[in-house]
């Protein structure tokens, strides 16, 4: 996770391409090649700064002495995948049948852990389950194995040669070295996105170092392995940096007037103005405050409480926060939005996504697998198929229209 400051890259820009990266060379293999011109001089200057920050010479030699920078990060930095999703497409992809089913299974396996987090921090289990599912597919080891890379070569390349935020990347590289110094992890274990975000809930080194807690009491803080540290620390992050309110829901889909009203009002005030929950239930805490949001005219409208914005602190995108909050509700048994988005179609079932992936693969479009999960590989395959089949727009969204065309064959 990054500090949410305009000087720094956002979680969205840092993590967007992580799951689309190809499997990369092992850490040791990278070190065997000669560093690019100028890197060795920078490394020597940076060594003095790192040691002045408390990094031990032993850790420096272990991690940095023969390291080769991963120059492929600059391709990812400058050329993020572009799919131009509409909001309903964005929601459908993230609030997927696979994530809902897998989220319920993850909850069953970790019921005691989520109960403990709710008691300790007051963060709803649905929110944490959704963050976990979106950030790392509930800690799926295949994501770690196939789509993550050693973070030290990436951070070193950015700290050396990314001109706009060199101080930020140097600080994150020192933070990562401090983690090794503390014995919390090893350079080999520290694999993540091209920008250095790691583990179950995709921590940047700064968050690992300053927000992470040893929630499983094994003597170290780690976003890898058992999810206890990652989920407990993420709850702490939402409390400390997102100002999460214990006992409040993130918000509600509502109907009634008020879409043009700005500012925060109590749920009681909203009710008196004719706004009500779409499920007919009363607002649990009438004195709590909320703001109205209508993301797309003619679509669903929402009253958003402070905990929606706590989720948004994790990634400064309203769309991301809505997807997380909605996915959390769906995992726990909630239904789809009552009011559809204009021009939208329902989300496909797991079986339909798998059928689409299978048909695309047979037609020569590589989806990267047929497991029902839609990542950048599947979206690229869909976009290439749309372009070849003359489907407009060729936006990469694999929905019911694409599946219907695939069923028609050539």
Features:
5-stranded antiparallel sheet, single chain, mainly alpha, disordered N terminus, two-stranded antiparallel sheet, 7 strands, 410 residues
Summary?
The protein contains 20 helices and seven strands.
Question: What composes the largest sheet?
Answer: 5 strands, antiparallel
* SS summary, helix count: 20
Question: Tell me, what's the shape?
Answer: globular
The assigned structural class equals mainly alpha
Q: Please give the radius of gyration in angstroms.
A: 22 Å
- The number of distinct β-strands equals 7
Percentage of β-strand residues: 5-15%
Going across the major beta sheet, what is the strand order?
A: 4-6-7-3-5
Report, as a whole number of angstroms, the end-to-end distance: 45 Å
Spans where pLDDT lies below 50 across 5 or more residues: 1-32
The share of residues in helices is 40-55%
Mean pLDDT, all residues: 90
Describe, in plain words, how this protein is organized in 3D.
- The protein has 410 residues and is mainly alpha-helical.
- Helices cover 48% and strands 6% of the residues.
- It contains 20 helices and 7 strands.
- It has helices spanning 11-15, 27-31, 39-52, 57-64, 73-78, 87-94, 97-109, 111-121, 125-136, 141-147, 151-161, 166-181, 205-210, 228-240, 267-272, 306-312, 318-331, 350-362, 376-389, 400-408, and strands at 149-150, 191-192, 251-255, 264-266, 276-277, 289-293, 301-304.
- The strands form 2 sheets. The protein has a 5-stranded antiparallel β-sheet with strand order 4-6-7-3-5.
- A hairpin with a 7-residue loop joins strand 6 (289-293) and strand 7 (301-304).
- The longest helix is centred in the middle third of the chain and has 16 residues, at 166-181.
- The two termini are 45 Å apart.
